[in-house]
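Final report, section 2: Outcomes. Of the targets proposed, Sirohydrochlorin ferrochelatase, chloroplastic is the one most frequently requested by collaborating groups, and we therefore present its record in full.
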Amino acid sequence: MSSNCVLGSGSTMLIMSPASPSLARAKSYPVSETGMSPRAAVSRPLRLCGGPFRSRYALISSSLRPENGGFGPKPFRIGEKDGLIIVDHGSRRIESNLMLNEFVAMFRDKTGYPVVEPAHMELADPSIKDAFGSCVQQGVTRVIVSPFFLFPGRHWHTDIPSLTAEAAKEHPGVSYIITAPLGLHELLVDVVNDRVKHCLSHVEGDADECEVCAGTGKCRIY
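The predicted structure is given below as C-alpha coordinates.
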Protein backbone atom coordinates (compact mmCIF):
# COMPACT_ATOMS: atom_id res chain seq x y z
CA MET A 1 0.00 0.00 0.00
CA SER A 2 1.47 3.35 -0.91
CA SER A 3 0.61 6.93 -1.54
CA ASN A 4 2.29 9.99 -2.96
CA CYS A 5 3.28 13.13 -1.08
CA VAL A 6 2.66 16.37 -2.95
CA LEU A 7 3.82 19.87 -2.11
CA GLY A 8 1.23 22.51 -2.90
CA SER A 9 1.80 26.19 -3.39
CA GLY A 10 4.04 27.96 -0.88
CA SER A 11 5.22 25.64 1.85
CA THR A 12 2.08 23.61 2.59
CA MET A 13 2.42 19.84 2.41
CA LEU A 14 -0.57 17.88 1.10
CA ILE A 15 -1.13 14.13 1.37
CA MET A 16 -3.08 12.07 -1.17
CA SER A 17 -5.32 9.65 0.70
CA PRO A 18 -5.40 6.14 -0.80
CA ALA A 19 -9.07 5.76 0.15
CA SER A 20 -10.22 8.90 -1.58
CA PRO A 21 -9.10 11.15 -4.43
CA SER A 22 -9.46 14.13 -2.11
CA LEU A 23 -6.47 15.80 -0.57
CA ALA A 24 -5.95 15.96 3.20
CA ARG A 25 -4.13 19.02 4.43
CA ALA A 26 -1.25 18.32 6.79
CA LYS A 27 0.75 20.63 8.98
CA SER A 28 2.70 23.24 7.06
CA TYR A 29 6.48 23.09 6.97
CA PRO A 30 8.94 25.41 5.24
CA VAL A 31 10.36 23.63 2.21
CA SER A 32 13.88 24.32 3.49
CA GLU A 33 13.15 22.20 6.57
CA THR A 34 11.63 19.16 4.96
CA GLY A 35 14.91 17.56 3.93
CA MET A 36 13.50 16.86 0.45
CA SER A 37 12.95 18.80 -2.73
CA PRO A 38 9.36 19.27 -3.99
CA ARG A 39 10.12 17.24 -7.13
CA ALA A 40 11.43 14.32 -5.08
CA ALA A 41 8.45 14.48 -2.76
CA VAL A 42 5.94 14.02 -5.57
CA SER A 43 7.47 10.80 -6.85
CA ARG A 44 8.51 9.15 -3.59
CA PRO A 45 6.32 6.18 -2.54
CA LEU A 46 5.20 6.23 1.07
CA ARG A 47 5.97 3.22 3.26
CA LEU A 48 3.03 2.62 5.55
CA CYS A 49 3.46 0.89 8.89
CA GLY A 50 1.12 -0.84 11.30
CA GLY A 51 -1.55 -2.19 8.97
CA PRO A 52 -4.25 -0.44 6.94
CA PHE A 53 -4.84 3.22 7.62
CA ARG A 54 -8.11 4.07 9.31
CA SER A 55 -7.94 7.84 8.91
CA ARG A 56 -6.31 10.57 6.93
CA TYR A 57 -4.45 11.63 10.08
CA ALA A 58 -2.67 8.31 10.32
CA LEU A 59 -1.53 8.73 6.73
CA ILE A 60 -0.29 12.23 7.42
CA SER A 61 1.59 11.03 10.49
CA SER A 62 3.29 8.27 8.52
CA SER A 63 4.41 10.69 5.83
CA LEU A 64 6.46 12.55 8.43
CA ARG A 65 8.39 9.48 9.58
CA PRO A 66 12.18 9.42 8.93
CA GLU A 67 11.92 6.24 6.87
CA ASN A 68 9.74 8.13 4.41
CA GLY A 69 12.56 10.40 3.40
CA GLY A 70 12.66 12.74 6.35
CA PHE A 71 9.58 14.57 5.17
CA GLY A 72 9.34 16.42 8.45
CA PRO A 73 11.36 19.25 10.00
CA LYS A 74 15.04 18.53 10.45
CA PRO A 75 16.35 18.46 14.02
CA PHE A 76 17.48 21.94 14.98
CA ARG A 77 21.11 22.12 16.02
CA ILE A 78 24.02 24.53 16.20
CA GLY A 79 25.97 24.39 12.94
CA GLU A 80 29.36 25.51 11.70
CA LYS A 81 28.05 28.96 10.76
CA ASP A 82 26.34 29.57 14.08
CA GLY A 83 27.72 31.65 16.90
CA LEU A 84 26.41 31.46 20.45
CA ILE A 85 26.36 34.40 22.88
CA ILE A 86 25.71 33.63 26.54
CA VAL A 87 24.61 36.87 28.15
CA ASP A 88 24.15 37.67 31.84
CA HIS A 89 23.11 40.89 33.54
CA GLY A 90 26.57 42.22 34.26
CA SER A 91 27.94 43.37 37.60
CA ARG A 92 30.15 46.04 39.10
CA ARG A 93 31.86 43.18 40.90
CA ILE A 94 34.71 42.00 38.71
CA GLU A 95 34.69 38.49 40.16
CA SER A 96 31.08 37.98 39.07
CA ASN A 97 31.85 39.05 35.50
CA LEU A 98 34.89 36.80 35.32
CA MET A 99 32.75 33.87 36.41
CA LEU A 100 30.75 34.18 33.19
CA ASN A 101 33.99 33.83 31.23
CA GLU A 102 34.74 30.63 33.13
CA PHE A 103 31.27 29.28 32.46
CA VAL A 104 31.54 30.05 28.74
CA ALA A 105 34.91 28.28 28.57
CA MET A 106 33.42 25.27 30.37
CA PHE A 107 30.38 25.31 28.08
CA ARG A 108 32.55 25.51 24.95
CA ASP A 109 34.77 22.64 26.07
CA LYS A 110 31.84 20.39 26.92
CA THR A 111 29.71 21.07 23.84
CA GLY A 112 32.46 21.46 21.26
CA TYR A 113 30.68 24.44 19.70
CA PRO A 114 33.30 26.45 17.80
CA VAL A 115 32.04 29.98 18.50
CA VAL A 116 30.78 30.78 21.99
CA GLU A 117 31.14 34.30 23.37
CA PRO A 118 30.29 35.87 26.75
CA ALA A 119 28.38 39.13 27.02
CA HIS A 120 26.97 41.36 29.74
CA MET A 121 23.70 43.18 29.28
CA GLU A 122 25.03 46.21 31.16
CA LEU A 123 27.63 47.47 33.64
CA ALA A 124 30.54 45.52 32.13
CA ASP A 125 32.28 44.52 28.92
CA PRO A 126 32.01 42.76 26.56
CA SER A 127 28.58 44.05 25.63
CA ILE A 128 26.07 42.22 23.45
CA LYS A 129 27.21 44.46 20.60
CA ASP A 130 30.85 43.48 21.17
CA ALA A 131 30.03 39.77 21.33
CA PHE A 132 27.82 39.96 18.23
CA GLY A 133 30.64 41.60 16.27
CA SER A 134 33.13 39.00 17.52
CA CYS A 135 30.89 36.20 16.29
CA VAL A 136 30.57 37.79 12.85
CA GLN A 137 34.34 38.26 12.62
CA GLN A 138 34.68 34.52 13.12
CA GLY A 139 32.51 33.88 10.06
CA VAL A 140 29.11 33.08 11.51
CA THR A 141 25.93 33.85 9.61
CA ARG A 142 23.52 33.29 12.49
CA VAL A 143 23.89 34.43 16.08
CA ILE A 144 22.13 32.63 18.92
CA VAL A 145 21.71 34.75 22.04
CA SER A 146 21.13 32.68 25.16
CA PRO A 147 20.13 34.69 28.25
CA PHE A 148 21.86 33.35 31.36
CA PHE A 149 18.82 34.29 33.42
CA LEU A 150 16.51 32.16 35.50
CA PHE A 151 13.06 33.54 34.63
CA PRO A 152 11.62 35.57 31.73
CA GLY A 153 11.46 39.06 33.22
CA ARG A 154 11.79 42.49 31.63
CA HIS A 155 15.39 41.92 30.54
CA TRP A 156 14.35 38.94 28.41
CA HIS A 157 11.16 40.56 27.13
CA THR A 158 12.58 43.99 26.33
CA ASP A 159 16.22 44.82 27.06
CA ILE A 160 18.08 41.92 25.46
CA PRO A 161 15.95 41.93 22.27
CA SER A 162 16.48 45.69 21.93
CA LEU A 163 20.24 45.48 22.44
CA THR A 164 20.55 42.52 20.07
CA ALA A 165 18.53 44.22 17.34
CA GLU A 166 20.75 47.29 17.64
CA ALA A 167 23.88 45.16 17.36
CA ALA A 168 22.52 43.30 14.31
CA LYS A 169 22.01 46.54 12.38
CA GLU A 170 25.74 46.72 11.75
CA HIS A 171 25.81 43.24 10.21
CA PRO A 172 23.24 42.94 7.40
CA GLY A 173 22.74 39.39 6.24
CA VAL A 174 23.42 37.92 9.67
CA SER A 175 20.30 36.56 11.35
CA TYR A 176 19.81 36.01 15.05
CA ILE A 177 17.58 34.29 17.55
CA ILE A 178 17.08 34.91 21.27
CA THR A 179 16.41 31.73 23.20
CA ALA A 180 14.37 31.28 26.35
CA PRO A 181 16.02 31.74 29.74
CA LEU A 182 16.68 28.76 31.99
CA GLY A 183 13.15 28.71 33.38
CA LEU A 184 11.67 25.59 34.94
CA HIS A 185 14.19 23.14 33.53
CA GLU A 186 14.19 19.92 35.52
CA LEU A 187 18.00 19.73 35.56
CA LEU A 188 18.01 22.88 37.69
CA VAL A 189 16.70 20.71 40.53
CA ASP A 190 19.99 18.82 40.47
CA VAL A 191 22.02 22.04 40.32
CA VAL A 192 20.25 23.61 43.30
CA ASN A 193 20.40 20.38 45.28
CA ASP A 194 24.11 19.99 44.59
CA ARG A 195 24.79 23.58 45.66
CA VAL A 196 22.81 23.23 48.89
CA LYS A 197 24.55 19.99 49.84
CA HIS A 198 27.99 21.46 49.13
CA CYS A 199 27.32 24.53 51.29
CA LEU A 200 26.10 22.33 54.15
CA SER A 201 29.21 20.22 53.81
CA HIS A 202 31.34 23.36 54.00
CA VAL A 203 29.75 24.70 57.18
CA GLU A 204 30.19 21.26 58.74
CA GLY A 205 33.89 21.36 57.88
CA ASP A 206 33.81 18.62 55.26
CA ALA A 207 34.36 20.76 52.11
CA ASP A 208 36.12 23.93 51.02
CA GLU A 209 34.24 27.01 49.94
CA CYS A 210 32.83 26.69 46.44
CA GLU A 211 33.99 28.93 43.60
CA VAL A 212 31.05 31.26 44.22
CA CYS A 213 31.77 31.95 47.89
CA ALA A 214 35.56 31.55 47.80
CA GLY A 215 37.22 34.25 49.88
CA THR A 216 33.97 35.86 51.02
CA GLY A 217 33.27 33.92 54.21
CA LYS A 218 29.55 34.22 53.51
CA CYS A 219 28.83 30.50 53.49
CA ARG A 220 28.34 30.04 57.25
CA ILE A 221 25.76 29.55 59.98
CA TYR A 222 24.44 32.89 61.33
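The chain has three domains: 5-68, 82-178, 185-222.
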